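Input record, target 12 of the design panel.
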């Protein structure tokens, strides 16, 4: 899940470094060409390795747990969900001055989902609801529900209060700050999740969906995977969907009013965090987060 801004020291990552890491730790793939994927997101630098693999290196300390988490859980989750998910094949160790674990996974074919193609698709909305339903039913025996490890928990919505209110003040004049404050107050005041904790993706937005021939094919980037309140995953309803498809999504998932309100709060706070962090320097992020905030206000 997108986290609030923190100061960090980012290591220099280039193709020479990645080649040295692969050659030293995965010599079976040493002869395969590397191709930088850009844009790759704010958390990782990603290289395609040959035709069938990718190498993902965290850009900052907030993303360093993803490689081992995905290696542990995604092979077990994959048979239980109706869309493809990443298939990890190795975890690299720090070396050559690079300080953190990194990942090698199978390449997933497809294009990143777009609002233009899918916003009005109720079929897509129902498919996403079906994916989340399957994810929430995933019950591995060695992680009893309610006993999640620390790396499988999420920051409570209330912990984002100070930063969210500061961001609302920062964007005054660009968005309806009174409406944002009203929504944020409602999200914090909504009843909490009172059922057994369930699995959530944790960063479920348009950029983490792939399509093939215009249809959903895969869900990627499980760094926020955890167990708890699934409201955070409702963010997809406000990054991808329009009012009509959003209604189909909510009905298929069976979301109650309190959870929906908390989900709108998650969409607002993560959208504001990304907007205030990147909109000034990245027009693509500016457009997507403007839509996310606006749709969250609509509900």
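The sequence produced for target 12 reads:
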């Amino acid at each position: 899940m997108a986290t609030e801004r923190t100061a960090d020291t980012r290591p220099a990552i280039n193709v020479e470094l990645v080649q040295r890491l692969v050659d030293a730790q995965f010599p079976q793939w040493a002869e395969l060409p590397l191709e930088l994927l850009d844009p790759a997101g704010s958390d990782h630098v990603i290289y395609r390795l040959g035709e069938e693999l990718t190498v993902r290196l965290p850009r900052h300390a907030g993303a360093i747990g993803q490689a081992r988490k995905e290696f542990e859980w995604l092979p077990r989750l994959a048979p239980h969900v109706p869309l493809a998910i990443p298939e990890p094949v190795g975890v690299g160790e720090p070396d050559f001055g690079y300080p953190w674990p990194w990942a090698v996974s199978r390449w997933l074919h497809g294009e990143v989902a777009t609002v233009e193609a899918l916003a009005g698709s109720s079929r897509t909305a129902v498919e996403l609801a079906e994916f989340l339903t399957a994810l929430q039913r995933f019950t591995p025996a060695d992680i009893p529900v309610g006993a999640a490890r620390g790396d499988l928990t999420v920051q409570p919505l209330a912990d984002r209060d100070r930063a969210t209110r500061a961001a609302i003040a920062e964007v005054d004049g660009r968005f309806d700050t009174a409406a944002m404050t009203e929504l944020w107050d409602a999200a914090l005041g909504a009843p909490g999740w009172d059922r057994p904790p369930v699995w959530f993706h944790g960063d479920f937005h348009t950029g983490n969906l792939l399509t093939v021939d215009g249809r959903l094919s895969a869900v990627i980037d499980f760094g926020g995977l955890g167990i708890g309140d699934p409201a955070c995953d409702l963010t997809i309803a406000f990054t991808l969907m329009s009012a009509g498809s959003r209604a189909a999504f909510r009905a298929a998932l069976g979301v109650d009013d309190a959870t929906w309100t908390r989900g709108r709060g998650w969409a607002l706070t993560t959208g504001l965090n990304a907007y205030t962090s990147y909109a000034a320097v990245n027009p693509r992020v500016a457009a997507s987060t403007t839509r996310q905030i606006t749709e969250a206000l609509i509900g």
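Residues 1-7 have pLDDT under 50 and may be disordered.
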